Amino acid sequence: MILVTGGAGFIGANFVLDWLAVNDEPVVNVDKLTYAGNLQNLHSLQGDARHHFVQGDIGDGELIARLLEEHQPRAIVNFAAESHVDRSIHGPEDFIQTNVVGTFRLLEAARHYWAALPDAGKQAFRFLHVSTDEVYGTLKPNDPAFTEDHNYEPNSPYSASKAASDHLVRAWHHTYGMPVLTTNCSNNYGPYHFPEKLIPLMIVNALAGKPLPVYGDGMQVRDWLYVKDHCSAIRRVLDAGTLGETYNVGGWNEKPNIEIVNLVCALLDELRPRPDGQAYREQITYVQDRPGHDRRYAIDARKLERELGWKPAETFETGIRKTVQWYLDNPQWVSAVQTGSYRDWISQQYAQEQKATA
Ligand code: NAD
Ligand code: TYD
């Protein structure tokens, strides 16, 4: 089995769902259930013996050591993190605690577990750390896309904390020989994306008749990857990645924010026209820019394609259509997140899980 951290969040939940859809290897899923963790994302796994959920903190070394001992996973995939740049600007402390201290504690628990494994288990073991392209800093309009050799130049508390975690993972390989892999991915989008991030926020605000807040001039560029393609890249790196290496993951799909927002609006105009017949783009409002806002990210994912044969399956056009449709098809998920009732559901659900595993 494998141990996944942060598997109730956006990417982690998609990863767990896809993992169990493509094979039967069980997953122990450790998630602290912060505001970003939502067990409703994993609702379809209710009663599935292959999924074992544990509410817990990656910074709790004793808990992690106990879970490793009990379940003997062959790999750890670390998604757990504080992930929202704007929140990191308002309150960086949690980012340091989870992304830096938490990753350190997780690495230490993993190292002790790994060191005590018999030779075959030791050789097979993997620690895969999921990271971001934001560690590389910002690009000028004509700069080449980030390769794995790009300097680390993080600019936000979020990206600095992720950069620190990447460095720890690297050091645990060089110093202790830990079998680690790191992936640095561009912006994801898709089902179960918490509506504080650009794409889901625009969808839910548009449908609610609220303003669509575009920061600054809206010309900041991001590379966008459909979340299920990120999950397939992680599976591929876990299977065949070279130990100690990092792999950039991207969608070959750079777009300025305003173009993304206009595309979302156009899809909504087609799929769920406004009752008053107006276009959703009428709701776009330019607001004050984010402090220190990185202007452009772009990912060169050729290493992953060349060495491991991975390519994204979705284009932006197919992925964004599926995503908008998912939000239209799942109004209960959206409203539970908006009203906060997903937190009540989590406590009920968690009580049931506790009973089931007691
Ligand atoms: P998310 O915020 O949606 O989910 C994070 C999950 O981690 C939540 O379920 C939360 O409860 C859990 N968590 C937080 N602190 C924890 C702790 N101390 N112990 C255990 N669990 C904890 O984030 P996401 O968008 O799914 O991102 C997952 C990972 O992928 C992060 O490491 C992030 O840096 C990275 N990443 C995200 C993107 C993106 O576009 N979203 C892109 C590249 C990389
Ligand atoms: P976000 O989804 O927060 O991801 P990140 O900052 O990690 O790239 O933001 C994506 C881009 O969209 C980023 O340039 C900031 C911008 N943005 C807005 O213009 N308005 C918004 O309301 C949000 C949340 C983001």
Structure description:
InterPro entries: dTDP_Gluc_deHydtase, NAD(P)-bd_dom, NAD(P)-bd_dom_sf, Sc_DH/Rdtase_CS. With 358 residues, the protein is of the alpha/beta class. It has a domain at 2-192 and 226-253 and 296-315: NAD(P)-binding Rossmann-like Domain (Rossmann fold). The protein is built from 13 helices and 12 strands. It starts with a strand and ends with a helix. The mean pLDDT is 96. The structure holds nicotinamide-adenine-dinucleotide and thymidine-5'-diphosphate. Residues 5-6, 8-12, 30-34, 36-37, 57-59, 79-83, 98, 102, 130-132, 162, 185, 187-188, 194 line the site of nicotinamide-adenine-dinucleotide (NAD).
Here the CATH topology of one domain equals Rossmann fold
- Overall form: globular
- The main sheet orders its strands as 3-2-1-4-5-6-10
How far from one another are the termini?
20 Å
The unreliable regions are: none
Radius of gyration: 20 Å
Give the helices and strands as they follow along the chain: EHEEHEHHHEHEEHEEHEEHEHHHH
Helix amount:
40-55%
Bound small molecules, by name, code or SMILES, are: nicotinamide-adenine-dinucleotide, thymidine-5'-diphosphate
CATH class of one domain: Alpha Beta
Strand content: 15-25%
Q: Mind summarizing the main beta sheet?
A: 7 strands, parallel
CATH superfamily of one domain: NAD(P)-binding Rossmann-like Domain
Provide the residue-averaged pLDDT.
Answer: 96
Class computed from helices, strands and strand pairing: alpha/beta
Cofactor: NAD(+)
Protein name: dTDP-glucose 4,6-dehydratase
Keywords: Lyase, NAD
Family: Belongs to the NAD(P)-dependent epimerase/dehydratase family. dTDP-glucose dehydratase subfamily.
